[in-house]
Amino acid sequence: MDNFSPQSWNKNSKPHLFCPGCGHAIALKQLGYALDELGIQQNTALGIDIGCSLLAWDFFNVDTVQTHHGRTTPIMVGYKIAKPQRIALAYMGDGGAYAIGLQSIIHAAFRNNPVTVIVINNENYGMTGGQLSPTTETGVKTTTSPSGKDTKFGPGFKGPELLRQAANEKAFIARASVSNPVQLKNLLIKAIKNQTENNSFSFVEVLSICPINWKTDADQSFQRLKEMEKYYPIGEIK
Amino acid sequence: MAETEGSIIDSSPRQSEAQNDTNMELATIKIILAGEGGQGTQTTAKILSATAAEEGFEVAYIPSFGVEQRGSPSIAFLTISSNEIRYPRFDKADFAVILQERAIPSVAKYVTPETIIIFDSSTVSSKTFRAKKVFGIPATKLASENLTPKSFNVLVIGVLSQLLNLPAEKTWQMTVQTLGKKFKTEEIKEKNHQIFLLGKDFKLEEDNFTEPTFVPQQGAIETKGEGKRAIIIPDHCKSCGICIVKCPFGALSFGKKLGLFSMPIPEIDLKKCTACDICSRFCPDGAISIEKEKLD
């Protein structure tokens, strides 16, 4: 037996379409291990957003839905209402979650819809070439902020902290990082269990790396991730 | 070089349409560049079209690529003409520049028996083509021998500037202007200039093509010893280097074998390895696996 990748990965779609060193693939690997550990591969539906997250369309051997930009959460909420015995995962990037799709997530958290939302935060819009996103920190250079993000655009957007204010008391909200995959996997398991056992909303933000658009190598990417972790604290938030 | 270049240009079916005495013999040249996202296909096309436009030619350039930033076919349709270009798309290419074998299916329908094919003979097998006029240039091999495999596109720009009769100095200036920031030091810039000149003066291979040695290693690389077994899958490895950075014992380092993007992949020193499985936990591509062998 090998231990290359989780059993729930679709081996036929590998090598996958993400860039070299992409944090999405590290996060999806831990999600795969979480699905394996819970044994819910046959019982899960994954909704994916527009952006780099859509490259996960054939990543797993689970039912996958491609949704409109920012509308992954409401579609998976609808799916869960139609099929309450299934497990609904909504997977998206920071643009889809905090820019175009924020109202959907806030209301899902407010209504306590039993879905698990996973947000990959790499501080930019990766697919279109690394533009400024709501989570970009002040002073960070991107394609659309060549001299660094101006203070007038505000600091990096803290999604989980915002959702904590609106969410139902049963909701589970956490932030993890690809620099600690085991903790990430455990938080994902906890989030999925909050959906299945407590029938409640759960939300995990995953701090991620984007070596291609950050123009960093592997070492520099993880150093920048470390800086990000100082601004975006890791752990269970609610 | 001059003879080779002449023979390619002369054999074009469009020569009879040549008008206006310019330094290009053709009225219209249609070029299709086929590479992979991240290789610099679009940048190459941009530099060539900008230089041709500065030379007073009419130019049309259409990029075509998928949603991924890396690894999917990236095609550039380039038309250079001394007349007005009425429609930028075309069905039959005069030149097809093939830089990546995986991009060939996407351009096959634009290649006719008359199309002149120029391909990277160090990454693409010459047996792939059935066309009559096939010219090879071991671009990746030459680039990695002289600098890094990444600068092979500068070499391709050199080759194409010569084929299209664009002035070498102006093409190089345009290359510097476009890639400016990437040449971080004067030394790198100078080395790239040498590679550009190497491409400009390269005599294209007409037969006796270079063996395509710069291709991903097939199968799995298995290393055994010290009671451990390590497997690395080269055609899954994208050479991101995360396993090397994350290994707490420094057991991994870039070796000589090549992975999916024709870049070096890691090799493992099992004497330092403790089979802690951190590399496998991180590897975004599921390309590495290490386990302790069971004792009998």
Helix proportion range of chain A: 25-40%
What is the radius of gyration of chain B? 22 Å
Strand composition percent of chain B: 15-25%
Order of helices and strands of chain B: HEHEEEHEEHHHHEEHEEHE
* CATH class designation of the largest domain in chain B: Alpha Beta
Shape descriptor of chain B:
elongated
Distance between the termini of chain A: 39 Å
Most extensive interface: pair and counts? Answer: A-B, 33 and 34 residues
**CATH 2nd-level architecture of the largest domain in chain B:** 3-Layer(aba) Sandwich
**What's the Cα radius of gyration of chain A?**
17 Å
Q: What can you tell me about this protein's structure?
A:
The complex is a heterodimer of chains A (238) and B (296). Chain A is of the alpha/beta class and 238 residues long. Chain A has one domain (19-236): Rossmann fold, CATH 3.40.50.970. Helix content of chain A is 36%, strand content 17%. Chain A contains eight helices and nine strands. In chain A, the strands form two sheets. A seven-stranded mixed sheet of chain A has the order 2-1-3-4-8-7-9, sandwiched between helices. Chain A has a two-stranded antiparallel sheet with strand order 5-6. In chain A, β5 and β6 (131-132) form a beta hairpin. In chain A, α1 (23-38) crosses α6. Chain A is globular. Chain B has 296 residues and is of the alpha/beta class. Chain B has two domains: 13-201, Pyruvate-ferredoxin oxidoreductase, PFOR, domain III (Pyruvate-ferredoxin Oxidoreductase, domain 3), CATH 3.40.920; 221-292, Alpha-Beta Plaits, CATH 3.30.70.20. Helix content of chain B is 28%, strand content 22%. Chain B is built from nine helices and eleven strands. In chain B, the strands form three sheets. In chain B, strands 2-3-1-4-5-6 form a six-stranded mixed sheet. Chain B has a three-stranded antiparallel sheet with strand order 7-8-11, with no helix packed on it. In chain B, β9 and β10 form a beta hairpin. In chain B, α2 (41-54) crosses α6 (168-179), α4 crosses α5 and α5 runs antiparallel to α6 (168-179). Chain B is elongated. The A-B interface holds A 2-5, 9, 14-26, 29, 54-55, 126-127, 129, 181-182, 211-213, 217-219, 222 and B 38, 67-72, 231, 233, 235-236, 238-242, 244-246, 260-261, 277, 280-291.
